[in-house]
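Re: that chain you flagged

S.,

Sorry for the slow reply, it's been a week of failed gels. I finally had a moment to sit down with the sequence you sent. For the record, here it is as I used it:
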Amino acid sequence: MKKIYLTAQSQFISEPQEAKILRQKLKDLGIDARRLSRFTQLNLLAVLPLKEKISSKTALYLGSPFSSPSTFDKMFHNLMEQDLPSPLDFMANISNSAIFHIAQQFQLENNSSFVFINKNNYWQPLWLA
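Prediction finished late last night. Pasting the structure tokens below so you have them in one place:
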């Protein structure tokens, strides 16, 4: 069995905040978050403090029980009314979108994957690593 070493950890825990506040926090960090889903915004705010500790060879695995329900609802509404979702909304609903934006910010060159998890299989991202 391969050994896994946790070299750094970070978390972003906050009271529920309006999208405008999250976007401003990211803007203060130099990130334009206008087209990012709330899920991606929250993930970026959680991992950005680790930027100096992560090498470009780091693999990235993200586990979550959901992505962004509000963005999905918006896309679904557009689909029902116009028969075509906005390409940007569609991209924001791909679960790996958060991974893409994190990897881009950190300039990662290794594997990355989004894994659907729940309370019974929260360890799955570690198995993939």
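What I noticed first: Residues 19-65+96-128 form one domain.

Talk soon,
D.
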